[in-house]
């Protein structure tokens, strides 16, 4: 399969890049700069497969005129709203993504942000690193606990449900939510 040319638009995990290099004629983005529209167009014209990320914008205008060598867009990410799927398909490209792979990671990050804000962790960390912390006192960085609070979640897809589970089962929080689609129950 070394005769198949693959262009990777951003840096991927080292082990993945190594596997791509071992299997395909692979061009990596060594300096990890965001590809311009011209670079994306060139990638579509010169490679069999282009591997973008959620940071790359692939609008309908990018696919106008066709003439692509590429037949596959392998998106590194769950979301694909940055790719005009209809225009890509009309230009002869199959588009894939990685559904479900980041559900827990994203919910963990959201939980980290929630706790960081509630507990003023960023302030404390900056004070400690700058050498300004003089020890504990009862009124130092008073914050709020999240245990027993209510959280509102807009969008109860995989990530919303994962966040609700962390909040409810981990911190006894009540959950209120809005979602336009029917949801599955938490289990």
Strand order within the widest sheet?
A: 2-1-3-4-5
**What share of the residues lie within helices?**
25-40%
Number of helices, where a helix is a run of at least 4 consecutive DSSP H or I residues:
7
Average pLDDT, all residues: 93
Broad shape: elongated
Oligomeric grouping of the chains: single chain
Low confidence ranges: none
β-strand percent reads 5-15%
> What order do the helices and strands follow?
EHEHEHEHEHHEHE
Please outline the major beta sheet: 5 strands, parallel
| Distance, first to last CA | 43 Å
**Rg to the nearest angstrom?**
22 Å
The structural class is alpha/beta
Total strands: the figure is: 7
Question: How would you characterize the overall build of this protein?
Answer:
With 187 residues, this protein is an alpha/beta fold. Helices cover 37% and strands 14% of the residues. It is built from 7 helices and 7 strands. It has helices spanning 14-23, 37-46, 60-63, 85-90, 103-119, 121-129, 158-171, and strands spanning 5-8, 25-27, 49-51, 72-74, 94-96, 150-154, 174-178. A 5-stranded parallel sheet has the order 2-1-3-4-5, sandwiched between helices. A two-stranded parallel sheet has the order 6-7. Helix 4 links the parallel strand 4 and strand 5. Helix 5 (103-119) crosses helix 7 (158-171). The mean pLDDT is 93.
Give me a quick take on this structure:
With 187 residues, the protein is of the alpha/beta class. The protein has seven helices and seven strands; from the N terminus they run βαβαβαβαβααβαβ.
């Amino acid at each position: 399969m070394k005769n198949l040319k693959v262009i990777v638009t951003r840096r991927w995990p080292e082990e993945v890049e190594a596997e791509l290099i071992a299997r395909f004629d692979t061009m990596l983005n060594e300096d990890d700069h965001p590809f311009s529209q011209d670079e994306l167009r060139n990638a579509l014209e010169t490679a069999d497969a282009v591997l973008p990320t959620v940071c790359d914008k692939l609008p309908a205008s990018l696919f106008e005129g066709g003439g692509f060598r590429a037949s596959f867009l392998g998106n590194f990410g769950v979301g694909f709203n940055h790719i005009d799927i209809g225009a890509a398909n009309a230009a002869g490209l199959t588009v894939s993504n990685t559904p479900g792979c980041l559900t827990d990671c994203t919910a963990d990050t959201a939980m980290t942000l929630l706790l960081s804000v509630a507990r003023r962790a960023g302030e404390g960390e900056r004070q400690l690193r700058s050498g300004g912390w003089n020890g504990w006192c009862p009124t130092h960085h008073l914050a709020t606990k999240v245990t027993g609070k209510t959280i509102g979640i807009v969008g109860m897809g995989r990530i919303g449900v994962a966040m609700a589970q962390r909040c409810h089962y981990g911190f006894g929080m009540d959950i209120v939510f809005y979602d336009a689609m029917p949801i599955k129950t938490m289990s």
